[in-house]
Write a structure and sequence with these properties.
It is a single chain. Helix content is 54%, strand content 9%. With 227 residues, the chain is mainly α. The chain has a two-stranded antiparallel sheet with strand order 1-2. Strands 3-4 form a two-stranded antiparallel sheet. A hairpin with a 5-residue loop joins strand 1 (66-67) and strand 2. It is flat. The two termini are 17 Å apart.
């Protein structure tokens, strides 16, 4: 799943006691659970994927997940949402099969009628129209302090939130992020916090500051496809 409903009120009421490190790890664990659509069975693997420690992950698993007889940790709410998603996907698949199956039958009958009429001549108005689509490739210069992985996560989050960024918006956003970085803020923490908080941009927060200012960096080109 690349999208799931996020209830801010429920999340805050259940996680207000967590430390910043625990809160960030738990938010990432939820994302990972929905992304893989599978229960967690390896604490070390989960810790590595969410960039946390096995101790923190184990604590969160014991509090927010249920250990099954198969020695797997499940999240009841996430499982319910995943089940709904899979049911809708299966229903849509069956509907498409039925639809295109009927369309295929109609097309076969039509082709048979056309072939039987040797005198039929196609005019320009009868010629089939085709549409071509091209993937748009945008070249954006990423600063050396911003890993491509985190940048792609941010773009994917904006797309899944139905707020994709234009090339101009990306440039202005990177300038904003550059300004915060030169003030001593950690760009990765800023992006992660914005995603976890369902924000459309980043905000200067004390918990995202580094001990020293990063300063300006040389720019490195990165090419990616925008869909």
């Amino acid at each position: 799943m690349n999208f799931y409903p996020f209830h801010i009120g429920d999340y805050i009421s259940h996680t207000s006691h967590l430390t910043d490190a625990e809160d960030l790890a738990y938010r990432r664990m939820i994302d990972l659970y929905y992304q893989t659509e599978k229960p967690f069975t390896d604490i070390v693997w989960v810790a590595r994927k969410v960039k946390s420690t096995p101790e923190i992950v184990k604590t969160l698993l014991e509090e927010f997940f249920e250990l099954t007889e198969e020695n797997a940790y499940r999240n009841k709410r996430a499982d319910e949402e995943i089940a709904k998603y899979l049911a809708k996907a299966d229903s849509a698949r069956k509907a498409n099969l039925k639809r295109w199956g009927n369309e295929s039958d109609k097309k076969t009958n039509l082709e048979s009628d056309v072939k039987s009429d040797a005198s039929r001549i196609l005019t320009k108005n009868q010629e089939p129209r085709t549409k071509t689509s091209k993937a748009t490739t945008v070249k954006i210069e990423l600063p050396t302090w911003l890993p491509e992985k985190n940048w792609q996560e941010w773009l994917e989050y904006r797309r899944s939130s139905k707020k994709p960024m234009t090339e101009l918006a990306m440039t202005k956003f990177l300038n904003q992020l550059q300004n915060l970085v030169t003030q001593g803020y950690d760009p990765i923490k800023l992006l992660d916090t914005a995603i976890a908080s369902s924000w459309a941009t980043v905000y200067a927060r004390d918990d995202a500051k580094k001990t020293a200012s990063v300063g300006s960096n040389l720019m490195k080109g990165v090419t990616y496809a925008r869909t």
